[in-house]
């Protein structure tokens, strides 16, 4: 693509220079301007003639003569109104198919007059810029494989994405009827022709366009032609985008429809939206996340001398820190000399050293002054801003002022401090410190596995629920609440943890990305994946499309969440649909990180027939292992004759502890098995899985070395293969579940969730 030619074409458009120069946010290009763009890109627009509104009689006469010449081959032409503010022309009488065999110049102009009358009746007089006659391109309208939608959308976070879908007047109908599966969304960044071709080939609807079928023995469009259109639009989106070299940004280009004609695509209709929006490109010194997570010295602002407040609770938690030197923990307070046994200083300037960490728990209105002093006096390497009350509360100017102070600090020698927040709970850095303003008796953080896990969340409350639900089972290396992303963002933390060899799972709860930071997040995920990390993402919330783009088909077919999901999955992130799935995957990936993945052949056992049926619907990409003769012989010996001994094994409720556990061992020892799902409904009296009963109602002993969970733990730990346990029963079996999970084995209460999690673990 010749980017200079495109730039020159945009510079030549009077409407662009006139509108953007007067501080318009964006200007929409009309169809004629878009046809010129397609030609500058080397793409094929429909042959056409344009008549500007208010043209002279002589010009109208010449135009009508050219229209008749244009229509000679097919005996008809398409008449359209041209107006950048008339988006859906068909709905308002702005499109007409005209048969031209018996027409003369006068008749052609009469068709224009009739169309103009309809438009005026619809209140569109001022929106008419002219009329266009387009050659009729033979195709079957509203027929699969004939019309296509092609679009570039600039996502506020991820930048340009190419949208490819079923086109024509039924575009949105196809979208609704297919449950949103009528389109492909492809991020332009790092897109290549092979990826595009493979995606089209796999798409159940779009593949009809480019590959032979029962409907089309010869493909309507050559795959190379469609791939060229996609790649060209992707390049335009990148070069004429918020991070591109052009002075403009194409916020959107939509071609609907482009039709199949003689093996190529021809654009029949196109609109575009252009602005001068650019991303700032500001960066943070990510290396300073190290003192943020492992500080040796700290100060706290906003500590109450009278009783508990967030600052006071944070101070009490920091006093218990293993990482911070107790003699280097300070309080900034204008009146007190000591609070909770720690020395107080009247101002930031009086703190006797530059601290690794400053925790700011003062109200939002006082935060700007505190941060300004910390930056100007160079008194901290890293900041945590606890309070809310900024952009999320309508105080956008206050938030921007703080952000600008930090940006200026980053430009100084040394890079200034980095900051987490505001509107955050802060950080729990395992074996270093805890700034959550929650007392330890409410959220204790008992020891657990998880040194290989970094949990990065925009929501502090989510981290609290995770910490409480998995207390004593999973205690992440770092639990980071990053709040409003006024400085450090999720992408910064992914970059940092990519360089920490002990961390191999990075889980991110994200509500929204800063402008452009989604694109950086994708790049950081690529690097993390290349370094052997697994990135799990739950994306909550949706950003609103700009009002000027909301009238397009693209806006309705490719909402912001759909774009985010497509972008994240394109770089190998594991995108989860629910919070349950998010935690299932975190648990599985974290606890099984040391296990060897050799394939996708799964061995399954249950003592309940419904589980054996249900799990078959949730295997995803897993394959049922075929047990060899040796394994089958062991199962035949272990299990009752009436048990189903093929995979998945239904050993029935009659199977006791010894036979069940022996069957689990046989599955894991089988050369035909790569991973295992070991499930039992534990209520059968044949299984020893309850704590001892002081009233001796039963003789079971959960803690005994021969109990079901004890033996299963030994067997699973003795195997290099990944295995998950399922316990689908009530609260009296919680001790059994906790015992197994505390040993480092993932436990699920439903077998379908276990299958999904294990499939994801093996796929990524």
Which structural traits does this protein have?
alpha/beta; D-amino Acid Aminotransferase, Chain A, domain 1; Rossmann fold; seven-stranded antiparallel sheet; seven-stranded mixed sheet; 31 strands
Detailed description of the structure:
There is one protein chain. With 764 residues, this protein is an alpha/beta fold. 35% of the residues lie in helices and 20% in strands. It has 25 helices and 31 strands. Strand 9 and strand 10 form a beta hairpin. The two termini are 35 Å apart. Residues 542-558 have low confidence and may be disordered.
Helix amount, in percent? 25-40%
Low-confidence parts? 542-558
- Please summarize the sheet with the most strands: 7 strands, antiparallel
Compute the number of structural domains: 5
Structure, briefly:
The protein has 764 residues and is α/β, with parallel strands linked by helices.
List the helices and strands and how they pair.
Blueprint: H1 3-12, H2 14-20, E1 26-29, H3 31-41, E2 48-52, H4 57-70, E3 76-82, E4 95-99, H5 105-121, E5 130-135, E6 147-155, E7 159-166, H6 171-177, E8 183-187, H7 193-202, H8 207-210, H9 223-239, E9 249-261, E10 264-267, E11 270-275, H10 289-293, E12 298-301, H11 310-319, E13 329-332, E14 338-339, E15 342-345, E16 355-360, H12 364-376, E17 380-385, H13 396-411, E18 418-421, E19 427-429, E20 433-434, E21 453-457, H14 460-469, E22 478-481, H15 490-498, E23 505-510, H16 517-530, E24 534-539, H17 553-557, H18 560-570, E25 574-576, H19 579-591, E26 601-606, H20 609-616, E27 623-624, H21 629-638, E28 649-650, H22 657-669, E29 675-679, H23 708-717, E30 723-726, H24 734-742, E31 747-748, H25 751-763
Parallel strand pairs: 12-13, 12-16, 13-15, 16-17, 17-18, 21-22, 21-23, 23-24, 24-25, 26-27, 26-28, 26-29, 29-30, 30-31
Antiparallel strand pairs: 1-11, 2-5, 3-4, 3-5, 6-7, 6-9, 7-8, 9-10, 9-11, 14-15, 19-20, 19-22
